[in-house]
Amino acid sequence: MPATDPRTLIVTGASRGIGAAVARLAARDGWRVAVNFARDAAAANAVVAAIRAAGGTAEAIQGDVAREADILALFVEAERRLGPLGGLVNNAGITGGFARVEALTAEALSAVLALNVAGAVLCAREAVRRLSTRHGGPGGAIVNISSLAARTGGSGEWVHYAATKGAVDTFTIGLAREVAAEGVRVNAVAPGLIETDLHAANGAPDRPQRMAAGIPMQRAGTPDEVAAGVVWLLSPAASYTTGTILEIGGGR
Ligand code: NAP
Fold first, then answer.
1. What is the pTM of this model?
2. Which sequence positions are flagged as catalytic?
3. Domain-wise residue ranges, the chain
4. Spelled out in words, what is the top-level CATH class assigned to the domain 8-193+223-248?
5. How far is the CA of 133 from the centre of ligand 1 (A)?
6. Rounded distance, CA 12 to CA 14, Å?
């Protein structure tokens, strides 16, 4: 039988990178973690195995969070296997690839909007329906993974991606105020340049090293450095923090 305290955390896109680091650190902080992934079951299972080896509780759950039907199934399955929801980390995201705006295709734009914006909003909707005291829920916390690109604009690389993260920031502020009196805190973490597979997936594995000199701290960050901020925002230590966008970017 799953436990009945609301300590189940769904982390979308948790098979690698920032999501995997959040899943591991949140499990150490006492969360039972639903490790969502889209394609790479082996990587998600490895994250779950590492959490269990460290004494934590986790389940790998497949689901494309750009699709509403998969999102609905993810929330049902997470609560069935792990118990009542207490938190959500909207982490899954893609860039849509490098392209100046005049070279952007409608297909790439649709894909990045469907995951980074619509997917995050629909996941938050499912979380609020379960967490808000307005619906008889226990309260809880949502953290959206934005990007410093929302502020810098991504010019010459991926303005379309940066714009989706601007939407995430605005959504964070608005939803935070909407549910603030209902026991639900909503915050965002905006990472700067972080060493993950995201850069290689866009054909630029050396991007973190190449851009490091332009960062005040002269280096890219690690997924664990981002996860520390996310897990703090999820925790009772951040009990008076909502509608905040926490930048973790080495001073960029
Ligand atoms: P990553 O290494 O490319 O990992 C992406 C994760 O998302 C993978 O676990 C992938 O799982 C999953 N995913 C992709 N599409 C999905 C979908 N449709 N449904 C469910 N899961 C899906 O990315 P990352 O660098 O860790 O980035 C994580 C978040 O941080 C993103 O929102 C990104 O925009 C943001 N961010 C990253 C950086 C950076 O420099 N890395 C900077 C600022 C913000 P599968 O492999 O199974 O598909």
1. 0.98
2. 161
3. 8-193+223-248
4. alpha beta
5. 31
6. 6
